[in-house]
Write a structure and sequence with these properties.
58% of the residues lie in helices and 0% in strands. It is an all-alpha fold.
């Protein structure tokens, strides 16, 4: 059952939230509801509500070991700023 909720928020925050919601094709109400749900979800074993599109993308990217990515970043920064 849906119930109306009135909130007082900073105008700038509301504007940013509206932009975010529009870009992500979701209503402000859904954003707030999902946020409240995530705050109050005490069931650690509850499966996340993941959209089919996100589920399909899961595992597509192969992430390198953290040490390797750190080394790549360090090499890039050294070349960029020190010319080495």
């Amino acid at each position: 059952m849906n119930t109306k909720l009135t909130l007082k928020l900073d105008k700038a925050v509301i504007q940013k939230a509206k932009v975010f919601a529009k870009e992500n094709k979701v209503s402000l109400s859904a954003l707030v509801e999902n946020y409240f749900e995530s705050l109050t979800n005490t069931d650690d074993n509850k499966e996340l509500n993941i959209s089919p599109a996100v589920r399909a993308l899961s595992g597509v990217l192969k992430i390198k070991a953290r040490r390797e990515t750190d080394e790549i970043r360090d090499e890039y920064l050294m070349e960029k700023y020190l010319g080495e």
